[in-house]
Specification:
single chain; alpha/beta; TIM Barrel; three-stranded antiparallel beta sheet; globular; disordered N terminus
């Protein structure tokens, strides 16, 4: 009998230990860092560091200085990797950095869906608001399409009304960290504070969990993938993006439309920035044209390896 009791106690302890790290880590998170954050605090000098031009694979491997205790436990590589893809013509699947798809798979990350299916996924990064998100939400609602929006701490603080609309209209709200830092430059504790701080604030407001993370700047390492995966997150990269985050580079709706349609491919995860007037004005035409070509627009939940 005592062996049965010991077994039950051990099973309980193991279950408790292996439970959702996202929840156990929340107890020490101080929400002041979220609620006091401003857009001036965001590290937006670089929005996406990977080079996205046709015919180029960008793969930056830069050693982050390790003269301070950046990690208290991990022996995994913290070499900075910058997400990049090589576009291909004729609706072919783009190439990702060599070795990157295997690394993402190991830690439940995604950058593309099932390439045998004519399904695409729309994701929008929301580092800050530039006045176009209401129109984007209007277009998505009119076309009965769900998307994913990745927000920062100041965005949640200053635009709770828009985030609430995202939630109420059935969109995924993902985590883009509190201050948008390059995660490999952060210590273990800083990563948890950046990610869990936003998650906790979001849960307090909407009673919903954040389960998707888009690493700021597309910069990551095996160490950051492991830490954020341990926290329960699915890291979401992309198979298409373009330089649409510049407020002073308006090239027109046709430019945005052609960029997207020229790079349409099975399983595509599109990264679009909601600060782009071009994207907002082109979105309705993009959605209608995508559907006319026989594609459907799915949600990240369909391809999240943790949900399968």
């Amino acid at each position: 009998m005592k062996y049965i009791v010991h077994f039950l106690i051990l099973a309980f302890v193991l279950t408790l230990f292996s439970g959702c790290m996202k929840e156990t880590g929340l107890s020490y998170i101080d929400l002041n860092s979220v609620y006091s954050s401003t857009f001036d605090d965001l590290d937006l000098a670089i929005e996406v560091s990977g080079r996205l031009s046709e015919g180029v694979i960008d793969s930056l491997y830069t050693n982050i200085p390790s003269d301070h205790a950046i990690s208290t436990y991990s022996t995994l590589s913290n070499n900075l990797r910058s997400w990049g893809i090589r576009r291909k013509p004729n609706n072919e699947t783009p190439d990702a950095d060599p070795g990157a798809p295997e690394l993402l798979k190991k830690y439940y990350g995604i950058y593309i869906g099932d390439t045998s299916q004519k399904t695409i996924y729309l994701t929008f990064d929301e580092g800050y608001e530039n006045g176009y998100t209401p129109k984007i939400l209007d277009v998505l609602k009119e076309n009965d399409v769900k998307a994913a929006f990745f927000i920062t701490g100041p965005y949640l603080k200053e635009h709770e009304d828009l985030v609430r609309r995202m939630v109420e209209e059935g969109h995924i709200v993902g985590n883009h960290t509190v201050h948008h830092p390059s995660l490999p430059s952060c210590s273990d504790r800083q990563i948890e504070e950046e990610v869990l701080g936003l998650s906790k604030a979001f849960y307090e407001k909407f009673k919903k969990e954040m389960i998707y993370l888009r690493p700021p700047k597309g910069e990551y390492s095996e160490r950051t993938l492991e830490i954020t995966s341990r926290l329960g997150y699915c890291n979401v990269f992309w198979s298409f993006a373009y330089d649409d985050w510049y407020r002073d580079k308006i090239r027109g709706a046709d430019y945005a439309y052609n960029k997207v349609m020229d790079n349409l491919h099975n399983g595509a995860i599109f990264l679009l920035h909601a600060v782009s007037k071009d994207n907002a004005q082109a979105l309705d035409k993009i959605i209608k044209s995508v559907k006319a070509k026989g594609y459907r627009i799915g949600t990240l939940d369909e391809i999240n390896p943790r949900l399968k």
